[in-house]
Structures are given as C-alpha cells and as structure tokens.
Specification:
The chain is α/β, with parallel strands linked by helices. 42% of the residues lie in helices and 20% in strands.
Length: 163
C-alpha cells in the first residue's frame, strides 16, 4: 500500500497527464496536400474552413462560435474544419490545452507545411497571411474572410447558402 506522501506526489502528475491528453476531437498533423482536397469539393456540402493560431487572441476567441456552428448544423450538409497554424512542437503545450479549455470537440488539423507562400494563395489569392482567416464555399461559390466571424455572422452566411 502506498503512503499518503507517495499518493500526494502522484496527484499532480496524474493531473498533468490528463491535461495533456487530446480533447474529444482528433488533432491530426498534416501537410497542405491533405487540406487541399477540402478546398475543391464540387458537391452540395457547405465547407467552413477556419485557419487560426493560439497566439492570436481573436482566432482563439472565435473558436467557440465555430464549434457551436458545427453542432447546430451537424445534421445538415455543412462541414466545419478548424486548421491550426501553430508549430507542431506547440501541439501538447498550447493547442490541446486551449481546445480543452474552450470545449472544442471538432477534429482539428494542425498544418505543418512551412511553404506558406505557395499554399496560402491556393486557399485564396486574397489572403495576405493575417489571421483569423476563413473560407466558406459550396460548389464554385466561394467567400473568403480575413476577419473575426462571430456565430451570428456565420449562421447568416450558412443560412443564405442553404436556401
């Protein structure tokens, strides 16, 4: 049987391990070629693809709105993708803790592709690199937003496209 002292020493370790485990959604480290197919689907699904980073407060502040949108339109043909541009080395120390704190259950892609100039223009020729950035499209109708989008604005954009 363990002593009280050993158990008390074990509690902080167990707490740290639980904090470092991934949130309910998966976090997948990908190159841009894994993201690109989501930018070119010609079907009836509305794609909402948000690029964000933990060091940008505005990016982080809008994540709950994207999560709420994903939940609300779960039964519709709407796909929300959250793509973190954080360094892979920050996955456990920054990305996972923020997603857990906010309660994000969506799958998240962590884009590990340093050639930003080439892939950024494939996302949108209008993108100058500022974050947050969101592309919303259905078929060949695409809108690009290089600004914060709150839930109401996102909902209005989606509802217009569903009509």
């Amino acid at each position: 049987m363990k002593s009280k002292k050993q158990i008390l020493l074990l509690i902080p370790v167990l707490f740290l391990i639980s904090c470092m485990s991934e949130p309910d959604g998966k976090i997948t480290v990908v190159k841009f070629d894994s993201v690109e197919p989501y930018l070119n689907n010609d079907n009836d699904t509305i794609y909402v693809i948000n690029f964000w980073v933990t060091s940008n407060k505005v990016s982080v502040d809008q994540l709950p709105d994207f999560e709420k949108l994903r939940k609300e339109y779960d039964d519709e043909s709407v796909k929300v993708l959250l793509i973190s541009l954080d360094p892979v080395k920050d996955k456990d120390s920054e990305v996972i803790p923020i997603l857990k704190k906010i309660g994000v259950k969506s799958d998240v892609m962590l884009l590990n592709d340093p050639d930003t100039k080439s892939w950024r223009k494939k996302v949108s020729p209008l993108w100058n690199g500022e974050l947050p950035a969101t592309i919303i499209y259905r078929g060949n109708s695409t809108e690009f937003y290089q600004e914060a989008l709150d839930y109401n604005k996102l909902k209005n954009i989606i509802d217009e496209r569903l009509e």
